[in-house]
Amino acid sequence: MLFKEKMYLSNCDSVRGLSNEEIRKRLLIGLVFGNGIILSPNILFDNRGIAEILTQKNVIKFLNEEGLGTFIIRGINIKDIGSFSNYFDKLPNNYKISYLNGKEKGALSKTQLKEILTNLHTLDEMLTAVHPTYENATITKESLSKEIKQRISKKYFSSEEDFQKFLFQSQNLISRSEWYNFINIFFEKNNLKIASLKTEVIDPAYNSLFVKPQESFIQDNIRILDKIPEKILSTGVTFNALRKEIELIEYPIKAFEIISTLGTTELLKFLTDEALSYIEDKTQDKTISFLSRKNWFGLYPILSKKMGLEIK
What is the pTM of this model? Predict the structure, then answer.
């Protein structure tokens, strides 16, 4: 595995409106390169077609064998939901459906509601085959604002007065959508600053609410992992072959050496041009100098930072 923590796949966030294929790549990459994946309920049911990923034979096999217990669904009051259909029923009417352009649950047409309920039923059926662990996230209505205000800095404001005004006017905000709307108004016409605040402050603050100490969430600061060859992620390749039959400590160390000495562009070359032959050869090239486990974990934060991984 490339990362030793469980990873919350925040780069699958439904708000981003990624295609089914992009979601599929991120989820499979998380399974291959992480020590377990964490998904929120909205990532699961508010992305079109995500249930199809759970039908892949190699995914089902992995999550029922060597990966058993590594798939976690974590959210507010989710541990005893029974089904996602029940979970959706309990959502407030002002909940915004991302793949319907943010339309509120209470404003859905009969046709849209029927479509969602059908998708939820399919999702429930798929989940029974992969045995996820359901966990409650400890999130209160103040959690997001508290986390945002710990991360925000004066660098985003032209003056101390503006900064204090921002803090005062935002004190009653609760949800991420409320924060989005607020900064859209507060920084009207300054699209660059709005985008920066969303990606550098609000989204990381929101994502951190779903992870525990010694877990991580991955952003899209570096998109290198999206370029892994399709053959590696295909249904014909077993996760066992990727995670066990290669020498696990040597693979991340080689990747780390390339990152730390030649940069992320070279990591892309390594993954796309060399990964398949590396798996087949199982590191027969003894001319490669490998770091020790001690050095690997000592230098690990550098790799994490370069790959856009934030560890709590």
Answer: 0.75
